[in-house]
Amino acid sequence: MKKKENHILKSISLLLLIAITCIACERDFSSVESDLEGYKNFNTNSMQFPIVAYNKKTGPVQTNNLSSNLLGVYNDPVYGQTTASIVSQVVPTTYSPDFGEDPEIVDVILTVPYFVTNLNTTDENGLAMYNIDSLYGSSPIKLTIRENTYFLRDNNPNNLDESQKYYSNAGQALNIDNEDGEEFFVNGQFFPNNSEIVVTEYNEDTGEDEEVERITPSLQVSLFNSTDNEAFWNDLFFSQEGTSAFSNANNFKDYFRGLLLKAEAVSESGNMVMLDLTNASIVVTYSNPNDAGTARINSEYNLIFSGNKLNIFENDPSNTIINQADANANSTIGDENLYIKGGEGSMAVIDLFNGQMLDEDGNPVDSKEYFLSKKEDWLINEANLVFYVNQDIVNQEEPDRVTLYDLTNKEAIIDYSYDTSTNTALPLYSKINFSKILERDSNNNGVKYKIQVTEHLNNILLRDSLNLKLGLFVTTNINGETNSATLNNEDDFVPTTTVLSPRGTVLHGNTAGVPDDKKAYLEIYFTDPNN
């Protein structure tokens, strides 16, 4: 029995010894791999590869049901004036209402929040001050809010299983320039206010308005005017009580087709702001006589922005720079300047490893074949695409971020997913390993964008993935991963966050006319274990 126990103990000891040896070997291997660049049998080097980059116009882009919406007028120093208006359906929060006896409209308040961050300061009235995110420009515009008279259907009549798409050029079809809908509000000098809003309520006991809450900065206006549209609002709600118009969302959207928020320029400049329609509301306050008939008691009926919500973009027709760049795009050798703009704008198509380069011995070789020949030789440590801003054309107005998409699979390249620096609270600082924030000089002029393509190239080199064309887009929020269709080509797309960017920039390409120190390039840092 004792011999058997000794045999068991020896077997356990042997297994433990083997396990310890394996762990030690694994640690040694990890140490060697982590110190690869410093190991004497390995060389770390870098090499630049040519690319072809050329312009492509996006044309009208799908704008219905975006995560947020733009409103206003923005003047880009390169691309001219862009005007953004909004059309949206609204629906009640409750159906089949009972408005009581002898109801009368008291007020109709529209509230659409801005996207803001608290500055932790107050103004002279003690109101909290905020920074309005995504506010472009500093001059007033004309804002008109009126009834939308165009029915926005939910489904494509040619394919009822497909949702209806609405595009940025829908202004003419929706008759936004015709004044056939009821007008609710006009402000010829509108500019977003960045202080909080005090909400008051009438106190019947004291006979005074009293503060009930404070809300963050919003577009908040009254759509009710007792002189001009009192009859409209009373008829809209009370004449249809008990009918099918208030029985469900579809019927109501056909009965009252929503609002048009129309922006117009009043000067060469203007302002454009991002609105949060997801949290927007219309509060209809109405009154009924009390039981004694001596006073009236107020009640509320609430509407929210639900259903189709779309942006309408109008670019300055006299500015033809995007059309010219698209018409003259050279997919063979690339373009000298790359014009990329959000909204109904443009992008740059990137074709990696297109053209010849010099190998280690100074001999001209096909860049793609040369790169693929390194499959057994190279370990790619890092790879970046670098684009320089053409400071002779743009001036401090360029966007801070760009993003890179696989145009065939319509998704961000794999390096986007590998980047764990996601920041939902501050999107400007999100995914900063994948796409660096625009580098600026001491005068705040943009210098260059850098985008990491390490894993994308590893997929090509090691996993035999196809070298597909890439798309370079501007972006307002790099966290967004949804796409919008384009009108002119069903195979094309635009990232939704590009649709929501009014800004653009101009980058140097990689052609012979570009100074060597400004040319766009692909740089690969690699380790060669064989040398």
Structural class: alpha+beta
Number of strands: 35
Query: Biggest sheet: strands, sense, closure?
Result: 8 strands, antiparallel
Distance between the termini: 60 Å
User: What is the number of helical segments per DSSP (H or I, 4+ residues)?
Assistant: 8
Rg, rounded, reads 30 Å
Principal-axes shape call: elongated
Uncertain segments of ≥5 residues (pLDDT<50)?
A: 1-41
Helical content stands at: 10-25%
- Please tell me the overall pLDDT: 90
Strand content: 35-45%
Can you summarize this structure?
The protein is of the alpha+beta class and 531 residues long.
Characterize the structure shown.
Helices cover 15% and strands 38% of the residues. With 531 residues, it is of the alpha+beta class. A hairpin with a 6-residue loop joins strand 19 and strand 20. The N terminus is likely disordered.
Highlighted features:
alpha+beta, eight-stranded antiparallel beta sheet, five-stranded antiparallel beta sheet, disordered N terminus
Task: List the SSEs and their pairings.
Layout: H1 2-34, E1 43-49, E2 51-57, E3 69-76, E4 80-88, E5 91-92, E6 104-113, E7 116-122, E8 128-132, E9 135-136, E10 141-147, E11 155-156, E12 159-163, E13 183-190, E14 197-203, E15 208-215, E16 218-222, H2 230-238, H3 249-255, E17 259-264, E18 272-275, E19 281-289, E20 296-304, E21 309-315, H4 321-327, E22 337-341, E23 346-352, E24 356-358, E25 364-366, H5 367-372, E26 379-388, E27 402-406, E28 411-412, H6 414-418, E29 439-440, E30 446-452, H7 454-462, E31 470-474, E32 483-485, E33 493-495, H8 496-499, E34 504-508, E35 521-528
Antiparallel strand pairs: 1-35, 2-23, 3-4, 3-18, 4-17, 4-21, 5-20, 6-16, 6-19, 7-8, 9-18, 10-13, 10-17, 11-12, 14-15, 19-20, 22-34, 23-31, 24-25, 26-30, 26-35, 27-28, 27-31, 29-30, 32-33
